[in-house]
Amino acid sequence: MAEAARDNLQPNRPLLCKQAGGNRTLDFSVAAVLPAGGSGERMGSATPKQFCQLLQRPLISITLERFERVHWIKEIVVVVSKQNFELMSSIIEHYGHSRAIVVEGALTRHQSIFNGLKAFVVNQSPSSWLEKPEVVIIHDAVRPFVEEDILFRVATAAKEYGAAGAIRPLVSTVVATNAEGYLDHSLERAKYRASEMPQAFTFDIIYRAYQQCTDYDFEYGTECLHLTLKYCGTSAKLIDGPPDLWKVTYKRDLYAAESLIKESLSKSVCIFTGMQKEAVQLGCLLQEALQLMMEVDVLTWSLNKESQCIQAISSGLYYNFIYININNFDLPLEIVQLMELIENAKLSALYPVVVTVVHLNNLETASSCIRMEDFTNIKELAKEAHQKNVLLYRLLINYTQVCEAAQ
Ligand SMILES: Nc1ccn([C@@H]2O[C@H](COP(=O)(O)OP(=O)(O)OP(=O)(O)O)[C@@H](O)[C@H]2O)c(=O)n1
Ligand SMILES: O=C(CO)[C@H](O)[C@H](O)COP(=O)(O)O
Question: What would be an example GO MF term here (predicted)?
Answer without folding.
Answer: D-ribitol-5-phosphate cytidylyltransferase activity
